[in-house]
Amino acid sequence: MSNTTNLRSQLAYQVIQEVQKAVIGKEDRVRKVMMAILSGGHVLLEDIPGVGKTTMALAFSKALSLKEKRLTFTPDVLPADLTGFTMYRKETGEFYFHPGALMCNLFLGDEINRTSPKTQSALLEVMEEGQVSVDGSTYPVPKPFIVIATQNPSGSAGTQLLPESQLDRFCICLRLGYPDMEEEIAILKGRIAQSTIETVRPVLNVTQLLSLQKECQEIFVHDRIYSYIAALVQATRNHELIALGVSPRGTLALTKMAQAGAFLSGRSHVLPEDVQSVFADVCVHRLILNSKARISHVSPLSLLEEILKTTPAPSVRKKTSL
Q1: Of 210, 228, 246, which marks where a domain is finished?
Q2: In this protein, which residues make up the domain named ChlI/MoxR AAA lid (predicted)?
Q3: How far apart are CA 249 and CA 40, in angstroms?
Q4: pLDDT of 131 higher than 80
Q5: Are residues 193 and 269 in the same domain?
């Protein structure tokens, strides 16, 4: 990788360091969210309330200088609150478009699984095509456009499952988990002293982020890596305990995440480890297990780990080439 490109990957790492001022610990999760942003994907954070999901999203919006909007998905939220609506202006006798919450660079959807399916479906078009349709007219959202959504664990009060079509549009699904004792003490000290979000400074602007996203797309992927990715995905579709495997959209997300991982590591090409490190995060929310798996209390994560172990990875003779 050239010195110039290596410097740009270091710039992306500076974003991670800034976010970690607000999110104590969780370095691996913060890195993977950054990878998803570099790959142009959306992020689903699934965990119990109060572990820092919203704080992480706000920290990224500040470090990346993104126009951010936030909406809490209560049962009374309407699709028009997201997409916008047209209004009649009496003075001119014309209708005009009033933009909704989605007209931003980074949309933070809190507790996305607490609202109605009708409202959830308002995200389908914009997450895939970067546009919203209102009363027969189409309006593009700003670029880059990233959705970071949080959801409470299934079975929590007032929640309902997201449909498969919605889940498939998220590039990765992460759980933050509880902090350990040292991290929790650091959180207490930091929050008592000042608001940790206030310590995060902007590192990139929108133009720079778009440029980094383009560089990630140009990271070289060898044919053997493509075959490895395809073999992993096929294994999810042919497994005896999986009713619905990873979609082609998931295959593309896995490739882009691997490219972003290579970019952050300062490499111009993808290694098998780049694929392995994100395989579970990209695929875990895309699987539907069959009744036999549910009866046996088998988890999607354990099946993905099994697939990783049983699928041969391509050999790499040199660290600099495939």
Answers
A1: 210
A2: 234-301
A3: 13
A4: yes
A5: no
CATH (domain of 294): 1.10.8.80
Q: In whole angstroms, give the CA distance from residue 25 to residue 29.
A: 9
In a domain, 65, yes or no: yes
Both tokens assigned to 301: 């994560």
Residues 45 and 78 in one domain: yes
Residue 86 pairs in a beta bridge with 97
Do 162 and 169 touch, CB atoms closer than 8 A? no
| pLDDT at residue 218 greater than cutoff 80 | yes
- Three-state helix/strand/coil letters over 193-226: HCCHHHHCCCCCCHHHHHHHHHHHHCCECCHHHH
Name the residue range of residue 183's domain.
3-210
Q: Give which of 10, 36, 28, 64 is closest to 266, Cα–Cα.
A: 10
- Alpha carbons 32 and 44: distance in angstroms, whole number: 11
Q: 226: which residues sit within 8 A by CB, 6+ positions away?
A: 255
Q: Does a cis peptide bond (omega within 30 degrees of 0) precede residue 144?
A: yes
Give the residues across from 241 on adjacent strands. none
Instruction: Give me the CATH number covering residue 184.
Output: 3.40.50.300
- The answer to whether 228 and 235 have CB atoms below 8 angstroms apart is no
pLDDT of residue 187: 72
Residues 6+ apart with CB under 8 A from 234: 245
Sign of the four-CA dihedral 167, 168, 169, 172: positive
Question: 279-305 pLDDT, tens per residue?
Answer: 999 999 999 999 998 898 899 999 999
Residue 52's region, left for phi above 0, alpha for psi from -120 to 50, else beta, is left
- Single out the residue in 145, 179, 210 at which a domain terminates: 210
- Residues 268/5, Cβ–Cβ less than 8 Å: yes
Query: Do 52 and 170 lie in a common domain?
Result: yes
In a domain, 316, yes or no: no
